[in-house]
């Protein structure tokens, strides 16, 4: 236990607090059981360590450990908690819990048997934490850590900090807000960088190798995370790689399930299941019209890659600027709102607000005379009336 505590404190002390994700100050850390889910590379591990450094005392009462640690080759999670609690431990930070078998059952036992212990754990967004062997729905409070917002990217890239802007503020005050922001930065130039290599914090390690790192992350999601959560065999994973390539060179589109099933060598039920898993892994965005009866075997009405960076990394020469705009808009809005396809226009937000997304020459013809409708334009710094600059929707979190 002493070695585990020493290693934990070393990792916590090394972590920097210069930049932190928006979720660090949004989580209710008073809860006894907290789950943080999200895609690989989004910063879940950093979030755990920053929480410990910012809010916890370095007095041995808290412990950070990853569930792929060699310790768990010979010990169970329950054994760890027994030792930790007896030595005075009160806050346990468990990283990548999906890599531990029987995580759900043991976590329930820990929660019930150690009422004075707080547990914060991270997992892949693929994992449905409420559908494990033991029901945690009444115990765990879950938070999703999405990719970097455009606002967070600007802070990391330039050091300039802006407050979060609510969806309602964007709709009502976009002219004033955009005017304030452009007095400090050039948003369009930064936006062009963001859509290529700004959605994950590791862009700070070098933009030249960013796309290659992102492709490797997708590979790890398929070969490690999916296999850990779904017990997939190598042949199925290989077919999923083929499927992602087929989708990446075609998005956005309404999928022909029979055709994709044949090309990828996957049965129809397995293909629909794959869509859902890749959506939860944040490799895909699946969109439906409202009231379309979404279910496990429902065919997606439209598919996008999870964010524009994935399109550049996986779609390569097949990058469409229109697709970049739409995938950015859907990705940023999904973090704070419900996003559907609209009957007229591109998107319906919170089942009320309609948006048409395009370049600076886009007209509002498709949504004219419709109530609660807005035109979202790329390549403009400031909008007017119901025309809003696309980049401003990157300030929602």
UniProtKB/TrEMBL annotation:
InterPro entries associated with the record: AAA+_ATPase, AAA_14, P-loop_NTPase
Q: One Pfam family name from the record? A: AAA_14
The source's superkingdom equals Bacteria
Q: Domain named AAA+ ATPase: which ranges?
A: 30-158
Q: Which PANTHER family match?
A: AAA+ ATPASE DOMAIN-CONTAINING PROTEIN, ATPASE
Q: By what name is this protein known?
A: AAA family ATPase
Taxonomy, top ranks, is: Bacteria, Pseudomonadati, Bacteroidota, Cytophagia, Cytophagales
